[in-house]
Amino acid sequence: MDMSKIPSPDARAVTGVIVVDLQGDFTTLKQGSLAVDGTDSTYVKTVEQVTLRLRAKGFTLFATQDWHPRDHVSFFTSHPGKHPFETVEIDGLSQTLWPPHCVADSENAGILMDPSFFSMVVKKGTCKDYDSYSGFQDQGGTSTELERLLRAGKITRLIVYGLATDYCVKATALDAAKRGFEVFVVKDLCRGVSVDTTRAALEEMAQHGINIITMADL
Ligand code: VGL
Ligand code: ZN
Question: So what's the ipTM on this one?
């Protein structure tokens, strides 16, 4: 590995951290409706500890928060006769149908860290008709405030991790790279929905110039 690429606080680039969807519904810790394997209390504690260490280094912290209306298009319950994890075509886009999760204002939509640690918590997927795996914009093309906030903070480099590797981490990291940020995904601070799509996601991110690193590199 090229050691010069590892984020360090004294490099000239301003570094931000995006903690993706660290929410009860994605964890076994909270018996979430869309719990991802390997998301017990040890995982959540590790993410919290590393995040606080990065904050102590002077990096600005951001979080994304999946935040859906109860009749959201991505819920299988919004499609009579359909089952969880089935795929449907909606307006020419393939949509995986999920169990209802991260319903706005529900307990398990909550972030599993003190929100006050974050400079901003960016809600996504708030529009009923569009899903949003990326923290930058939804499938309908509507942007969140994330890019503007990063630019306002002169941030050029992003450390990204959280849930799930193969969906929201991947989409957020790819969108960041597309927007010209230098991106580091910390793979052992991520957990994926399935083994195959997680492996493919790490390959796809690497192919797009994203640096795949581990906690030990931080
Ligand atoms: C996610 C599926 C549905 C994620 C969000 O955070 O990766 N996955 N909504
Ligand atoms: Zn969702």
Answer: 0.98
